[in-house]
Amino acid sequence: MEETTENRPHNKTRQHMENKPDSKKSYNPYQISSIGVDHENSSEENHKLAARISLAVRFLNLSFVMLIIANILRLNQEMVDPEIAKYILYFLIVLFLIAIYVLVFIVYPVAIGIVLVILTTLVMISASIAVFLQVIVMLAALSKATKKVSAMNMKLTFLGNVKPRK
Q1: CB 26 within 8 A of CB 20
Q2: Which of 35, 79, 91, 108 has the smallest set of CB atoms within 10 Å of its CB?
Q3: Is the pTM of this model over 0.70?
Q4: What's the sign of the alpha-carbon dihedral 77, 80, 83, 85?
């Protein structure tokens, strides 16, 4: 009637798992397996890959902000010195190329589909922002013109009310 800890049912399961030769490589339905990948180091590789992806995303965010600035500079050319705007645009192009380099050559296994999606998204968003900014500039010009016309109308009505001298 002696009951040791070895004979309890839950310990038998644990003991069976410890004696199993390939307990690390057991079937896990939630693990995405790929050919030639060592799953023992996969969590460390996943952290490295996540860090690389976050770095690439930060570069892309920065380049996206720079694209917005470039569109604003392009629309407001009379307010910004053209020489300074040219150097800023060169800097933006270099930054964007660095972001693409980080995505393609450092995060290569994931990068091909992501690069295409992000590039098309950036192009579409920057084009829509450029159109939006142009509409704002056109509305501002229209409001200036409307104010001038209303001021001219005020002058004309004022002049129409003045009685000529005799």
Answers
A1: yes
A2: 35
A3: no
A4: negative
Under 8 Å CB-to-CB from 102, ≥6 apart: which residues? 52, 55, 56, 59
pLDDT (mean) for 91-103: 70
| pLDDT tens-place string over residues 110-135 | 555 666 667 667 767 776 776 777 77
| pLDDT tens readout for residues 147-157 | 777 777 666 66
Residue 138 structure tokens: 């056109």
Residues 98-110 pLDDT 10s: 766 766 666 555 5
Which is nearest to 72 in space by CA: 15, 134, 145, 162? 134
Q: Are 105 and 56 in contact (CB under 8 A)?
A: no
The b/e string for 59-96 (b: 16+ C-beta within 10 A; e otherwise) is bbeebbebbbebbebeeeeeeeeeeebeeeeeebeebb
Expressed in angstroms, the distance from the first to the final Cα of the chain is 136
Q: Which tokens hold the place of 92?
A: 């933006």
